[in-house]
Each structure stands twice: as C-alpha cells, then as structure tokens.
C-alpha cells in the first residue's frame, strides 16, 4: 500500500494573500497544480490531506481546489482528507460535507461529526474530524465521537489501522505552551494504543516533525507552500513470514518544480530566498533589541540559518549535537528567550530524538 500525504495546503485564489512568511502562498495555484501532477504521475494507492485544505474556508476557494483534486480521483486514485480549523472560517459542517464528500469513499460515518473510515488495500484509515466541537478553533472530539472511535477500533481489530486528524495527538502532550496544537482529549493516545494503532498522521504545525511515545508514532506533515515544499510518502509492505512482519516506511521529499510546474520554478526559488532574507532581518532586529552586536550577532544569525535549514528538512535529530556544540548556541537561546523562539528552539534541538524525514517501523504484534 502506497500513499502520498500532504497537510495544510491552505489553497487560496487570493493573489493578495500574505506570502512573506509563507513564500508559496504567492504561487498557491501553481504549487497545487504541480502537486496534483506529481500525484497522478506517481499513482499511489491513495492521496491523503490532513486538514486546512483551504486558507480561508471560502466556498469559492474550496470549489477551485476540489476541481483540481477531482483530476486525481478521475485518474483512479482514492482521496482521503480531514477537516482543519481554517476550513471553517467561512464554511459550516454542511457546506464542508456538500463540497468535499463527493471526492471521498467513506466506509463508516460518525453520526456526530465529519469523521469516517476509508479502507485501502486492507489498511484502515480513521479520518477524524477534530473540529466538530470547536469549528475553526482547537481540536477536540465529543464524547459521542470518542465512543464511535472506540467502536471502529473494535470493528477493525486485527487490521493495520492509521489514525488521521488535523490537530496533533502527541505533540504538546507534556508541555503547556504547545498544548493548543494537541487534540484536547487526554485519553486519546492511550485509546489508540489499546486499539493497536501504531501511527497517527496529523498536521497543523506547518513543519515536518515525527515523535514517539510508548509505542505510538506521530508524523506531522509539512505545509507544501513553506520553504522546502515537502510532501510525505508512505509505504506498507505486507508480512513475508513470522520472522518478517509487515513494515511501514515513511519519507519526505521536496516537490520537483523542474519536473512539475517548471515555468514557476525560478520564481518559487526567488520567493524562498526573499523569505530567508526577511527572517534574517527579523532576527537581526531581535538581536539589536537584546544589544547583541558585531561578531557575536553574526555568529548567532549564522547558527539560526543552520537551525531553520535543518528544521525545514526534518533533520534536527541528526544535527542536534552539531547545533548544541556550536559556540553561539547558548548566546542564541539567551538572546531569543524572551521572544518565544528561544524556548521553542531549545525544546526542538534537545528533545527531538527521531529523524523527521524518514521513519521505518514494524507493524507486527
């Protein structure tokens, strides 16, 4: 079973959408077309989107995105997608169902939300709507949806089950300052573990990240409009025998704009460079506020450049020792500590233990 996964597409037809922080927003249509062409060319068994499908939740934007996704379905590739908080900025639940569900092939439906199951080559996907309780806000399941989820885990016991949602399952599990990213049902992770789920795939963060807790893995898939323009690939190989259980492999790659959407490749690279320059100016201003100047300031800025490169490509775990041993590391944290970036950078560098660009796990008992 093969899949291509993306999250937080934030598709928009608004040409005036701010693209300084997210370079690809200026090329939303071109990047989406490139992604569609890539999916059709690769022809995976399923294409997955984990929420924030449009930037505004506007029905007009949704209609244009759906017309593009229809090409994937017409090519014989099933689509699975979940709700995201941005999807309800200007749509309600009925609008979302009317717009998107013609693309989908649900097997089971939750009467209390837009959650459903899809089955691809005997792999069961729990495509969860974590916005039903707080549309457009934080992620949470109602008691009725948690009951339905339990019933689905029981129904598909013995199958390979993958959990999909927009908000996160494990990220922020032990940290108050990141709890807003997480689905606010404290018993969710344990419910999934007890139901035999090894993998949750989510979004919302906009950057690629993988973490693990007590045997449950979470893959947070990147936003394709961000610098790096990453997508995820998933492959599940069946068990060969008792000694060789089913194996799940996940890896990321950048959209190849030279092959897909080549007429925009140079402009997209220029937008990425503009974003890097803008962020350098932001951090330079923060250094000035903290009276960090001269060679010390430049050393911190150089280290920040490395950090964000590794963060975008999902290789923080591989480069953590390099970052922490840099003479500018402590100066960087100190200078940024009162500007939110410091605690965040320290946490990602010192607690990230798994590569965020590649994962392989056995799925046997």
How would you concisely characterize the structure shown here?
The protein is α/β, with parallel strands linked by helices. The protein has helices at 28-42, 59-74, 93-100, 143-155, 188-194, 265-289, 294-313, 316-325, 329-336, 341-351; strands at residues 2-6, 46-50, 79-82, 116-120, 123-127, 160-164, 199-202, 209-213, 216-220, 230-237, 247-254, 358-362. Strands 3-2-1-10-11-12 form a six-stranded mixed β-sheet, with helices on one face.
The succession of helices and strands, N to C, reads EHEHEHEEHEHEEEEEHHHHHE
Instruction: Briefly note the structural class of the backbone.
Output: alpha/beta
Largest sheet: 6 strands, mixed
In the CATH hierarchy, the architecture of the largest domain is 4-Layer Sandwich
The gross shape turns out to be globular
- How large is the radius of gyration? 21 Å
Strand order of the largest sheet: 3-2-1-10-11-12
Question: What's the end-to-end separation, in Å?
Answer: 19 Å
Number of DSSP-assigned strands: 12
**CATH-level-4 superfamily name of the largest domain:** Metallo-dependent phosphatases
The CATH topology of the largest domain turns out to be: Purple Acid Phosphatase, chain A, domain 2
Number of domains: 2
- What is the arithmetic mean of pLDDT? 93
CATH class of the largest domain: Alpha Beta
